């Protein structure tokens, strides 16, 4: 039996149509938004607009706000300091009981439905979704990074 797949995607540099097509082509059933702030200056990627566009393609949307990166972590990521972002994320976010509960909910979802983690950064190596996907890989999921550009 094949391992369940977990996808990840960032919308940096992507346009909404290619982004949605990448999800649909991969067979994603649910987009798990792991941004702390589900707003975007980029058209089509704020929570409501994104949820509506996904619904038109029969893809679900779930916002895991408690798994988002705090402001200091986002600032470190923008500055190209992935190590500081990762430290902040692991020590301040994932150590919190409410984030641990959210992670368990995400794991349950991903083990049962084709799920894709969403954040901004195009490169998953410099994004907190890599930390999440590595932890989910240890739960038996195969991780596939999608790119929409």
From TrEMBL:
Lineage: Bacteria, Pseudomonadati, Pseudomonadota, Alphaproteobacteria, Hyphomicrobiales
Record PANTHER family: BLR5642 PROTEIN
Pfam families reported in the protein's UniProt record: DUF488 (PF04343)
InterPro entries: DUF488 (IPR007438), UCP024492 (IPR014519)
Source taxon at top rank: Bacteria
Protein name: DUF488 family protein
């Amino acid at each position: 039996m094949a391992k369940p797949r977990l996808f990840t995607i960032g919308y940096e540099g992507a346009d909404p149509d290619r982004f949605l097509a990448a999800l649909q082509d991969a067979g994603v059933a649910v987009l798990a938004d792991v941004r702390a702030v589900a707003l975007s200056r980029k058209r089509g990627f704020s929570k409501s607009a994104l949820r509506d566009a996904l619904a038109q393609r029969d893809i679900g949307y779930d916002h895991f706000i408690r798994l988002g990166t705090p402001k200091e972590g986002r600032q470190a990521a923008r500055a190209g300091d992935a190590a500081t972002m990762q430290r902040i994320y692991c020590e301040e976010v994932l150590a919190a009981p409410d984030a641990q509960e959210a992670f368990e909910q995400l794991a349950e979802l991903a083990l049962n439905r084709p799920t894709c983690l969403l954040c901004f950064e195009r490169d998953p190596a410099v994004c907190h979704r890599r930390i999440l996907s590595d932890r989910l890989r240890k739960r038996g999921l195969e991780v596939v990074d999608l790119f929409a550009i």
